[in-house]
Each structure stands twice: as structure tokens, then as C-alpha cells.
Amino acid sequence: MPRTPGFSRPAAALDVHPDTFRYRLRRAARIAGPDLDDPDARFAAMLEFRLTRRRPSDGVEHG
User: Fold this and answer.
1) How far apart are alpha carbons 8 and 35 in whole angstroms?
2) Between 54 and which of 14, 31, 58, 63 could a Cys-Cys bridge form, CB atoms 3.0 to 4.6 Å apart?
3) For residues 34 and 44, is the Cβ–Cβ distance under 8 A?
4) Which band of pLDDT confidence, cut at 50, 70 and 90, is reported for residue 19?
């Protein structure tokens, strides 16, 4: 995963160093998710997340 400033905010929200956040994200992806180094897989995962988040399963809009 490339080093990007995009890791600073989520890392701060979790009160961890950006390198720690990046490591944990990579580890989680290896265990359960897509190859986040692949731009197509990353796009598909982001799209699926956004569509799932907007799907009103309980009648309440979550987006």
C-alpha cells in the first residue's frame, strides 16, 4: 500500500500511528478481504461498501 496522507485521519480517529493503521489494514485485508494494492479490487470494495451502507435494511437511510 502506498504511503498517502489519507491514513492520517483514520489513524488519528483510532488513536494509533499512521504506520500502525496501515499495517493493521494490510493484515485485515490479507485475512478477510480483497487485495487493496490492486486499484480495481480497491474500487470494487469501496463501491460495495458505499452501496451496502446506503441500502436501507431497517427503513432508515444511512448515508
Assistant:
1) 21
2) 63
3) yes
4) very high
